[in-house]
Design goal:
Blueprint: H1 3-19, E1 22-27, H2 33-45, E2 48-52, H3 55-62, H4 64-70, E3 79-83, H5 89-100, E4 105-111, E5 114-117, H6 121-125, H7 130-173
Antiparallel strand pairs: 1-3, 1-4, 2-3, 4-5
């Protein structure tokens, strides 16, 4: 690879890194080409890109601070999954794939500036997505309002039933006058 090509790769990776919300470092030794192709398709469907970049180029592209955090994980063959949308999407997808592709090893996850080790990835993968958390929050906020609406409509229904019963009682009590 020429110096110009290395610069282009580093710039491209740096832009992708800057646009991502989360990154997962994966050791892909022993993974077959077919498994890797299937993995890439599955990731791409979720808006996640999987890049294999030389560790030295990756360290230059991500900046000194991030490189220092990830230095021990950027050893050996490493693929980096970058997620532009949901920050946990890449970790969840790769964790699911790891169940079927045993040779795939998850090294680390970088989310919002925090590096999570391989042992913590399962916990992250089991967290609900942002949409699920927002839906849960909306449901929690709406529950008291739904209860209030149900109570008020019950009171209104009871009032209508009572007035109908009262009307029917009065109609029975008052004698009808012949015409």
């Amino acid at each position: 690879m020429t110096r110009a090509e290395k610069v282009d790769v580093a710039e491209s990776f740096s832009k992708a890194w800057g646009a991502s919300q989360g990154a997962v470092l994966v050791d892909f030794r022993g993974v077959t080409v077919a498994e890797m192709t299937s993995l890439r398709k599955r990731l791409r469907a979720g808006g996640i890109s999987l890049r294999v970049v030389k560790n030295t180029l990756a360290m230059r592209a991500i900046g000194k601070e991030r490189a220092a955090q990830l230095a021990k994980h950027l050893q050996g063959p490493t693929a980096i999954a970058l997620s532009a949308g949901d920050s946990l999407a890449a970790a969840k997808t790769l964790f699911d794939v790891k169940r079927t592709v045993e040779k795939l090893q998850l090294k680390a996850v970088l989310l919002e500036g925090v590096v999570y080790e391989a042992g913590q990835i399962e916990e992250l993968a089991n967290l609900p997505s942002r949409q699920e958390l927002l839906a849960s929050l909306v449901g929690s906020l709406a529950a008291p309002l739904q209860g209030l609406v149900a109570t008020l409509s019950g009171v209104l229904r009871q009032f209508i039933s009572t007035t109908d019963a009262l009307r029917e009682k009065r109609e029975k009590e008052t004698p009808t006058q012949p015409a």
